[in-house]
């Protein structure tokens, strides 16, 4: 199971108090992921996570007021390496269409290992409380990268520009994630890949010129 353990050189240079905060944050997320995986997301409480971490419920709450935030941060970290590769392709001038396809495949591939967590991510992006939806959007580095790709395609004339890059990125992300979330718990393997690829093609036809 992948855990959050990497400490960047920048973090190593931070004051001790800040390093301890980040270490505690990682401990909470890693513990939560283990408990969610073992017991199911709904069966785990903040008190359960606090007890295993040997901290107070208030400490957990201060970092994560609700459990879904832990999932969002974990999924963002899980997808980080793939996103960095795509960002490198953007810097090298790869075509927007190619990069968008790669970006759409990131959550699809993540759903193979973490279908429940992907469903929670999609649900948070579409949450009926605007604050929750906004928190989900801001927690995912996936969205600004998709917006960068779209903006590059709008500048070179390969992507429709009637809609702003940020809004179009959110539309694509929401549509793609919801489609994946609705199917990744009932389909597997080539069946899931074929269905999602087909639906992504429809999305792409709507944004490419």
**Major sheet: size, sense and barrel closure?**
none
Helix amount, in percent? over 70%
Radius of gyration: 18 Å
Return the string of H and E elements: HHHHHHHHHHHH
**Named CATH topology of the largest domain:** Tetracycline Repressor, domain 2
Report the CATH architecture of the largest domain. Answer: Orthogonal Bundle
Class derived from helix and strand content: mainly alpha
End-to-end span in angstroms? 41 Å
Would you report the number of β strands?
0
- Overall number of domains: 2
CATH superfamily of the largest domain: Tetracycline Repressor, domain 2
Explained architecture:
The structure is a single chain. The protein has 209 residues and is mainly α. The protein folds into 2 domains: 9-65, Homeodomain-like (Arc Repressor Mutant, subunit A); 72-207, Tetracycline Repressor, domain 2 (Orthogonal Bundle). The protein has helices at 9-12, 16-39, 46-53, 57-63, 68-78, 80-91, 96-113, 115-125, 130-139, 142-155, 165-183, 189-207. Helix 3 (46-53) packs across helix 4 and helix 7 (96-113) packs antiparallel against helix 10. The longest helix is centred in the N-terminal third of the chain and has 24 residues, at 16-39. It starts with 8 loop residues before the first helix and ends with a helix.
């Amino acid at each position: 199971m992948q855990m959050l353990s990497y400490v960047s050189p920048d973090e190593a240079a931070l004051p001790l108090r800040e390093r301890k905060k980040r270490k505690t944050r990682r401990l909470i997320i890693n513990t939560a992921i283990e408990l969610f995986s073992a017991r199911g997301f709904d069966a785990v409480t903040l008190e359960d996570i606090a007890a295993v971490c040997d901290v107070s419920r208030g400490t957990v709450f201060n970092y994560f007021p609700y459990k879904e935030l832990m999932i969002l941060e974990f999924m963002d970290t899980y997808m980080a390496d793939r996103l960095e590769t795509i960002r490198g392709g953007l810097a090298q001038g790869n075509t927007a269409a190619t990069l968008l396809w790669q970006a759409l495949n990131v959550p699809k591939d993540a759903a193979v290992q973490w279908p429940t967590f992907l469903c929670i991510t999609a649900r948070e992006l579409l949450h009926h409380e605007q604050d929750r939806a906004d928190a989900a959007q801001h927690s995912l580095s996936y969205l600004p990268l998709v917006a960068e790709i779209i903006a590059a395609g709008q500048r070179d004339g390969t992507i429709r520009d009637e809609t702003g890059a940020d809004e179009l990125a959110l539309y694509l992300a929401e549509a793609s994630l919801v489609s994946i979330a609705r199917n990744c718990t009932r389909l597997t393997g080539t069946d899931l890949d074929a269905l999602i690829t087909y639906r992504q093609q429809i999305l792409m036809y709507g944004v490419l010129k």
